[in-house]
Amino acid sequence: MRAVFGQLSKQAIVHLIVVILVFWLFPSFTIAVGIGVLIGIVVGNLFPAIESRAEKFIEDKLRKS
Questions:
Q1: pLDDT value at position 64?
Q2: Which residues contact 44 (CB under 8 A, 6 or more apart)?
Q3: In angstroms, rounded to a whole number, what is the distance separating the alpha carbons of residues 35 and 21?
Q4: Tell me: the pLDDT tens digits for 10-60?
Q5: What are the C-alpha distances in Å from 22 to residues 10, 19, 29, 35, 40?
Q6: Do 44 and 55 form a contact (C-beta atoms < 8 A)?
């Protein structure tokens, strides 16, 4: 087990701890966000046109801000 943590960066370990704490405090929120991220990954990989439109939309919104 120590070898696994030795290979992870400090940032990854902090992220893991934060995710565990958030899951412990708000399990349904964490699960919903995880499912949303997975759906986004699948849609982005299956439909590159949707992903490029989403990226363009985000870039346009950031430029206007």
A1: 83
A2: 50, 51, 54
A3: 18
A4: 777 787 888 889 889 989 988 998 898 888 888 777 777 877 888 888 899
A5: 18, 5, 8, 15, 21
A6: no
Distance of CA 18 to the CA centre of its chain: 13
State the sign of the Cα–Cα–Cα–Cα dihedral 54, 56, 61, 62: positive
Confidence (pLDDT) at 53: 86
Residue given tokens 């995880």 in the structure block:
34
Helices (H), 1-65: 2-7, 10-25, 27-46, 48-64
Query: What pTM was computed for the model?
Result: 0.51
Cα 9 from Cα 11, distance rounded (Å): 5
